[in-house]
Amino acid sequence: MLDAxxxxxxxxxxxxxxxxxxxxxxxxxxxxxxxxxxxxxSFEDMADYGRCKEAWLRRFLALPNGxxxxxxxxxxxxxxxxxxxxxxxxxxxxxxxxxxxxxxxxPRQVAVDGKTLRHSRDRGKGWRPLQLxxxxxxxxxxxxxxxxxxxxxxxxxxxxxxxxxxxxTGCLVTLDAGFCQKGIAREIRARDADYLVCLKANxxxxxxxxxxxxxxxxFARGAPDHLPAHDSADAGHGRLAxxxxxxxxxxxxxxxxxxxxxxxxxLAVEAIRGHRRGRFATTREVRYFLTSAEPDPVRxxxxxxxxxxxxxxxxWILDVVFGEDDCRVRERRxxxxxACLRRIAxxxxxxxxxxxxxLRRKRxxxxxxxxxxxxxxxxxIMR
Length: 383
Known about the structure:
Layout: H1 2-9, H2 25-37, H3 43-52, H4 54-57, H5 70-79, H6 82-96, E1 109-117, E2 130-137, E3 142-148, H7 159-164, E4 172-175, H8 182-190, E5 194-199, H9 204-219, E6 230-236, E7 239-248, E8 265-277, E9 279-291, H10 297-306, H11 309-320, H12 332-350, H13 359-368, H14 370-378
Parallel strand pairs: 1-4, 4-5
Antiparallel strand pairs: 1-2, 2-3, 5-9, 6-7, 7-8, 8-9
Helix pairs in contact: 1-6, 2-3, 2-12, 3-5, 5-12, 6-12, 13-14
C-alpha cells in the first residue's frame, strides 16, 4: 500500500525552488500520511511525530537533513497543487476499488454529497468555509473522489469536476435534493450510470405534482393504489420504523417529468417511526425521488437508506474521529490537501479487518506501535 502511494506521490510536481530544498517532497508527504494516521491534527503534530519516530522512518525514507520543521510542512502543503494531490488520491483508490463480486447482479451505489469545513473560514480575507463534494462507494466504504466547490458557487458547481475522474459504468448514483438538476442527471447518464435523486421544493412544480399524485392515488382513504410496492420494518436505537415504497410509472401524469433525461419512475418513500419519550409517539415523513434506473422498489428503497452511509461512514467519521471540523487551517490549498490526507488515513485504517477495534483505537495503536503502523500502510485495502 505504501509503495502504491509513493509511486503516486512521485507524479506530484515539487513547487519549491530547487536551490533552497533541504527535504525531499516524498519524505514530507509520507511522514504526513503516517502522522495523520497516528492522530496528528496540525503541522506541529506532523513535525513532532517525525521527530519521535525518526529512527523508524529512516528504515524506508532517506531524510538527508533530518525531520522537516512544522513551517516546512505548512509551506509545502500551501504550495502543492490540490487538484494534482486529489488526482493521486483518486488513482490510488481506483487501483484498489473493485465491484462487489458477492452480488454481481446488484449495481454499485455511489452516493454524492457535500461537506463544509466549518473552521476554515477566514473573515479577514473574506473567505467562506471550504466546501467539498465527495463521491462515496456505499458498499465498500471508500471515497472515490472529491472536488472543491468554487468560491461563491453552490455545491452543484463541483459535480462536473467530481464526475470527470470517475468510472461510473453500471453504477447507481444517489443524490440529495441539493443536486436535483437536469444538467447533473444528464452528466450521470452520459457516463452510463443511473441516478436516484431526491425531489423537493427546489423543483417546485414537479414536487407539487408528485405530492398531489401520490396523495390521491396512494395515501388518501380508499385510494386505488394504497398497497405499497415494498413494505419493510425494523427496530433499533430505541425506536421502531416502517418504510413503504410507492412507485409512479405514469410519466405523462406529472407535468415536466419527461424533460428529465431517461427518467423511468417517481418514487414516494414513506417512513413511519415510533419512539418512546415519556410516552410512545409516532412521526411520518414522505420523500420523493426521481430515477432513471429500473423501478425495482426493493432495490431502490434499500438505495435510499444506503445513501446516508456517506454521512455516517465518511462525514461523521471525519468530524468525530479526525477532527476535521475543528481544524483551523484556513489557507485554501493547505485545507484541501489536509482534507485529502485525512481520507487517505481513513482508508488505511479501515483496511485492517483483522483487528476488531474502532477507528479511533486503531489510530492510537498506530501512533504507539511502529509494527502496527507498518502493517497498516502496507495492507491491502480490499480483502
